[in-house]
Write a structure and sequence with these properties.
The complex is a heterodimer. Chain A is mainly alpha-helical. Among the domains of chain A are: 277 residues, no CATH class; 78 residues, no CATH class. Chain A contains 27 helices and eight strands. The radius of gyration of chain A is 30 Å and the shape is globular. In chain B, strand 1 and strand 2 form a beta hairpin. In chain B, helix 4 packs parallel to helix 14. Classes of the chains: A mainly alpha, B mainly alpha. The interface between A and B is medium-sized, with 26 and 34 residues.
């Protein structure tokens, strides 16, 4: 049943929780915009299309602000369908059943808690700014209507992803953003290389999606097995001792579906970790006894497997090892797209997924260790590759991969709020960097090679200033947002112990510090080569021109956000849970993360040691300064001074390897793609072209056509013949009846 | 002694669609008399209004309780109302196609629309007939209107040939049907279907009456053959391609949609009511043999056709075959298994035939096929040119080559219709086949369903060939374009939307079609 509400009369103004009825509008607006731009954009003209696309996202932004206000209000709550108890600081809108198959069902439902609200601000806020920027960036492109349709569709899909109240709907958004990403990377599809980049992104993501799907199926089976064992075994019944809540949960499993987030939350609560041996009932160590593929495994094993598969999915979408290879190539798309999709929003979906499922993740220390180590490895690996890239967008792409690695580190060591904060601040400064790069390209006849830029500081003052601020922010210099968010992650890693993996926290910390050093180095290199020094002699145009008002405005605004974002990360600012003083973001996200924190502390899967962050912050700051200063010295004085002389051997070797991206693409090509292609070609020639096409299809078709051709001659066009056939048919049937049926 | 029955307003309730259509026809005829200008564009409008009103009235009676009215001659039941609705839709859409077609041939006259409406009224009454004489009269009303319509453009050789062939063979089949009715009357001494059903049951149970059994069987076979002609089942199909090709295209659309729906519904009603007392699987074998032959014959004959209009005629034969699968599943007696292509193979133990489900499937298929085929003939009619008709290549596949470049929207519509006819999701035709085949599998007709699926795969070849020509062949140099015409385009848009919507959201017909399973069987 659709519980839609007229936005103009019923819901507003009023109590904040009434806003739940409007949640669908947030998604519907950009979706409608996508439809209108795509279908009518060509007829509406450029100005109208621009206006419509920006307007829908801006309207969504206004509504997102209202939801942000609503989930901040004391009175906002909804009754959880899975437990019957109220959930505070969150809004929920159930639009009814989407589909059901057997025991499985899924709903159209939107859930906005504080984590989602923060994501909404990023998606619609930065999304709007980038739409605005695009209106100028794409002003000479005839495909503007296609572009804005895709971009609006992307926003709608991303909103679906973060607002979904169940993993199935989340997966719709997950695939939808993947589709939009594909369409926009290959936006200039007449260029073969760009079209291939789109395909590479899509196929790599499909590998991740495969993991995501299997992970979801495992969760479905897991919830189903729990429910069945709870009904059938004595052991299970004691988990369900609170009969009212148990009934509510079972009802919700069948009605809302096993992948509803509230159902999963309640499951996490019901299913104590192995360490809680003194409690009666099933624990994660209990062996599953119900019939099915899971029989004989323990709940904990299945959960870990599901989370690792989801990690594969997240690695695909968020460009982590081993699936990061698509993101650098994705820079083939228009630059605003790189800023919105491949820096600020879509690629953070993996981080969002694990923040959303934090309550499951803390039940499996193994999965956490994997997430943290993957993140740390990616952070360093991508940063090293970024050292030697000469394409301004490629550097930023590897930087994004590396920063996403930092977020995974945060998730893996259980400081979810820090990962979310880094997600938000990174969205601001990386969007600013990308749009700055777009502005540089716009003013330099699409030149992207930083060796052929340089000296833009005077020619493009606004771009320079904003790019510099964003560089400082990502490097981690003190009064800017990137510092506190990144170092909250590092501090978290340093003080966290994941049960069973005591080495993870410290390893991740040191790797993170090294990653921060690398970040400072390559970002400073990028900045120096692009903006400082003299204009390169082989530049495409003798003089760059500054971009127009709309682009500059967006750059300034994003730079401003990169600065003021710092207030969310200053440690020990506000009173938080447990009487501690915490950072603003930690306090803000506490309601969304409280289940994970509770479970982690009850079962001791993640232990945070309290310690003052300030010393660690000073170290991190020093590291960032050292990295930046080294790069400055190298590229401002050492290298120019050595001009003409060859580099020392070890540096040259590293440089050539890093420039070739450590040959990972070639390795994948050799190990996976080639054998696969050879196999497919063989199968195609023998099975498809030979057996199926030649014998089966061709043969059948030939025979049938021959028979049909013969039958044609029965159609003489002679009415007497026709009547004869009818009469004969009739006589035969009567004959059959009289001889056989009656005998 | 004769007593006049007392009639109430309930007695007239099921007749309203037919009354409205007849009134519309009379209005159109009268308007022809008092015509003061040459403009006749109001006539199709009047026709469409009459069919819309008829459809609304038919829809209003969908939720009625099944009863016999008019002394048992007429039934009021949801099945009949729904088929009346489908008939009104088919006639209305065909009428929308007519103005452009007739204007192109300087043949706009009021009797065309009047005949359409009279035919529609006959069809609507046929579906509601519960008595053999009444049924035969209605069958003739609709047949005579259709004979006249088929020969409407009488000056060309093809329409005349088509009309005459149709008339001769139609008369032959009417005679067969009438003879069957006479034999059945001899066996049962009644013409009211419910009474005949009860009497037949007695004949097959009471050993003293067993000498009447041959009479009953022969009567049923002859009636079946008569209906077999109307629905174009193999081997009573031979007239179809010639008549469909020769008749004016809007008339062909009406014949393949509405006439077929009416004849199917009447046949289902007659055999459901009469067949209750027939023991064994005689009816099942009869219908499954017809279905088998029709599916195979229709599809194989359509394969080599390059003439799209003839291809669609054969396609309408093959669709009658799929519908007959659904009809055959109505006559499966629970508990019988025999195996074989024509027999019953229950896949799951305890699977019981679901008559209501099968009827729903048949109704949905009729609706889906009506909107699809009218649309397909509509596109074809708009593309054909007067000069080529005599020589007979007005409907060659080449005429459609490159349509996607010349008229993209038309090509999309035609592609939608072809995909629907081929039974490819997400079109309505797919859902129709799915429903019919599912109820047949539930009833145990697995062999027949396998044949149906295989022949649909064959069908995909000649349907998709049209799409290939439209999208992948270059447009001919001197390709004439159809003139724009509001009512033709309206009909095409309506049927395209209906095909897609019924295919994607078949559930919107849910509560209505779920009523369609209730047929008045008499007390």
């Amino acid at each position: 049943m659709l519980a839609l509400v007229n936005p103009f009369t019923d819901a507003f103004p009023g109590a904040p929780e009434n806003l739940a009825n409007l949640l669908w509008v947030i998604v519907a607006l950009p979706l409608a915009g996508a439809f209108l731009c795509g279908v009518l954009g060509k007829f509406m003209g450029r100005a109208n299309t621009n206006f419509l696309a920006c307007f829908t996202v801006f309207a969504s932004f206004i509504l997102s602000c209202l939801t942000l206000w609503a989930v901040g209000a004391q009175s906002t709550q909804f009754i959880s369908p899975a437990s019957g108890v109220p959930v505070r600081w969150a809004l929920w809108l159930d639009l009814g059943r989407w589909f059901s198959a057997g025991d499985f069902s899924a709903h159209y439902g939107f859930l906005v808690d504080r984590l989602t609200a923060a994501m909404l601000m990023v998606i619609t806020g930065i999304g709007f700014l980038i739409h605005l920027y695009s209106t100028e960036y794409m002003e000479h492109d005839d495909g503007y209507w296609r572009y804005f349709a895709y971009l609006n569709l992307f926003v709608a899909m991303m909103l679906t992803l973060v607002m979904a109240d169940n993993l199935v709907l989340l997966f719709v958004g997950w695939e939808g953003v993947g589709l939009c990403s594909y369409l926009l990377i290959g936006f200039w599809y007449r260029d073969t290389e760009k079209a291939w980049a789109g395909r590479k992104a899509f196929i790599t993501n499909r590998i991740g999606d495969f993991g995501f799907l299997i992970g979801m199926f495992l969760l479905v089976l897991l919830v189903g097995a729990t429910e069945q064992m709870g009904r059938e075994t004595a052991l299970g019944r004691s988990n369900f001792s609170d009969i009212g809540r148990a009934r509510a949960w079972v009802t919700a499993v069948h009605d809302q579906g096993p992948l509803n987030l509230e159902v999963l939350r309640e499951w996490a609560l019901r299913m104590p970790a192995e360490t809680a041996k003194d409690r009666p009932g099933m624990t994660l160590g209990t062996t599953i006894t119900t019939e099915g593929p899971l029989k004989g495994k323990t709940f904990g094993q299945v959960l870990t497997a599901a989370l690792l598969l989801l990690l594969l999915g997240a690695a695909g979408k968020s460009a982590q090892i081993p699936l990061y290879v698509w993101l650098p190539d994705a820079m083939a798309g228009p630059t605003p797209v790189s800023a919105l999709i491949h820096a600020a929003t879509m690629v953070t979906a993996g981080v969002y997924l694990f923040c959303r499922l934090s309550f499951l993740l803390v039940l499996s220390p193994t999965a956490m260790a994997w997430v943290a180590m993957i993140g740390a490895l990616t952070a360093i690996w991508a940063a090293l590759i970024a050292f030697a890239q000469d394409d301004i967008k490629k550097v930023l792409a590897y930087s994004t991969v590396s920063q996403l690695g930092f977020m995974f580190m945060g998730v893996g060591v259980g400081v979810f709020w820090a990962a979310a904060l880094h997600l938000v601040t990174h969205a601001c400064f990386k969007a600013c960097l990308f749009l700055g790069a777009g502005s540089v390209m716009h003013g330099n006849a699409d030149e992207t090679d930083i060796r052929r830029l340089g000296g833009l500081r005077k020619e493009m003052p606004w771009t320079w200033a904003t790019f510099a601020i964003a560089t400082l922010a990502i490097t981690g210099i003190v009064p800017l947002s990137g510092f506190f968010s990144k170092d909250a992650i590092l501090h978290g890693a340093h003080t966290t112990e994941v049960a069973g993996y005591p080495w993870v926290g410290h390893t991740v910390y040191w790797m993170g510090l090294f990653g921060a050093l690398c970040t400072a180095f390559y970002m400073t290199r990028l900045y120096v080569l692009t903006f400082e020094g003299k204009r390169a002699p082989d530049a495409r145009v003798p003089h760059a021109h500054e971009s127009g008002f709309r682009m500059v405005f967006v750059l300034v605004f994003l730079a401003f956000l990169s600065v003021v974002g710092v207030v969310w990360g200053i440690p020990e600012l506000v009173p938080g849970p447990g009487g501690r003083k915490v950072a603003l973001m930690e306090g803000y996200l506490a309601p969304a993360m409280n289940l994970a924190d509770r479970l982690a502390s009850i079962y001791d899967t993640v232990t945070h040691t309290e310690s003052s962050p300030w010393l660690g912050f000073a170290i991190a700051w020093a590291v960032a300064l050292v990295g930046g200063a080294t790069a400055w010295l190298v590229f401002r004085s050492w290298l120019p001074a050595r001009a003409g002389k060859p580099l020392p051997n070890y540096i040259a070797l590293f440089w050539s390897w890093a420039r070739a991206k450590f040959y990972v693409d070639e390795l994948y090509d050799l190990l996976i793609i080639r054998p696969f292609t050879v196999l497919s070609k063989g199968l195609y020639k023998i099975v498809d072209a030979g057996l199926i096409d030649g014998v089966a299809v061709g043969g059948t078709a030939g025979v049938l056509r021959r028979v049909g051709g013969w039958l044609r001659y029965t159609q003489t066009g002679n009415a007497q013949n026709y009547a004869t056939v009818m009469a004969v048919g009739l006589l035969i049937s009567i004959g059959v009846v009289l001889t056989w049926v009656l005998r | 002694m004769l007593t006049l029955p007392t009639l109430t307003s309930t007695d007239f309730l099921p007749l309203w669609p037919a009354l409205i259509l007849s009134a519309g026809a009379c209005l159109v005829l009268l308007s022809e008399v008092f015509l003061s200008s040459a403009s006749r564009s109001f006539q199709p409008l009047l026709t469409v209004i009459a069919t819309v009103l008829g459809a609304l009235v038919a829809a209003a009676t969908v939720f009625s309780v099944p009863t016999g009215v008019f002394g048992g001659f007429v039934v009021l039941d949801p099945f009949g109302s729904l088929v009346s609705l489908v008939i009104c839709i088919g006639v209305g859409l065909s009428a929308l196609l007519a103005p452009a077609f007739l204007r192109g041939r300087q043949a706009e006259r009021g009797e065309f629309y009047a005949l359409l409406l009279f035919g529609g009224a006959g069809m609507s009454l046929l579906v509601l007939s519960n008595e053999l004489i009444f049924l035969f009269i209605n069958l003739e009303i609709l047949s005579i209107a259709t004979y006249a319509l088929a020969a409407y453009l009488r000056r060309g050789p093809r329409p005349a040939e088509a009309g005459f062939k149709y008339f001769i063979l139609g008369a032959f089949s009417s005679a067969v049907l009438l003879y069957g009715a006479a034999l059945l009357f001899g066996a049962t001494r009644s013409t009211l279907l419910p009474q005949m059903g009860a009497e037949l049951a007695r004949i097959f149970t009471d050993p003293t009456l067993s000498d009447r059994q041959p009479l009953a069987y022969c009567g049923l076979a002859l009636i079946g053959a008569g209906f077999g002609f109307k629905i174009a089942a193999v081997p009573f199909h031979m007239w179809t391609p010639d008549v469909y090709e020769g008749a004016p295209t809007p008339v062909t659309a009406m014949m393949s949609a509405a006439v077929k729906a009416a004849a199917f519904a009447a046949m289902v009603r007659v055999f459901l009511v009469l067949g209750r007392g027939i023991p064994g699987d005689a009816l099942l074998t009869g219908f499954s043999t017809l279905a088998f032959l029709t599916m195979i014959g229709g599809n194989l004959l359509a394969l080599p056709q390059r003439n799209v209009k003839r291809m669609l005629a054969y396609s309408s034969i093959s669709h009658a075959g799929y519908l007959l699968v659904g009809v055959a599943s109505l006559f499966v007696k629970s508990g019988t298994t025999k195996g074989g292509v024509l027999g019953v193979t229950a896949l799951a133990a305890g699977a019981t035939p679901d008559t209501a489900g099968a009827l729903r499937g048949i109704l949905f298929y009729l609706l889906a096929y009506t909107v699809t085929t009218v649309g397909a003939f509509g596109v074809l009619g708009a593309l054909e040119r007067r000069d080529d008709e005599v020589r007979g290549f007005a409907w060659d596949l080449d005429r459609l080559a490159g349509l996607a470049q010349r008229k993209p929207a038309w090509a999309v519509a035609m592609a939608v219709f072809m995909l629907s006819l081929g039974g490819i999701p997400p079109m309505a035709g797919f859902m129709g086949k799915l429903l019919i085949f599912r109820s047949a599998v539930d009833a145990g007709l697995v062999g027949l369903v396998i044949v149906g699926v295989l022949t649909s795969a064959v069908g995909a070849y000649y349907y998709l060939r049209v799409v290939v020509y439209m999208y992948m062949r270059p447009a001919p140099e001197a390709g004439g374009l159809p003139e724009r015409n509001l009512s033709t385009e309206l009909a095409l848009v309506l049927s395209t939307v209906a095909v897609v919507v019924l295919g994607v959201l078949p559930g919107i017909t849910g509560t209505w079609l779920s009523r369609g399973g209730s047929v008045f069987l008499g007390r």
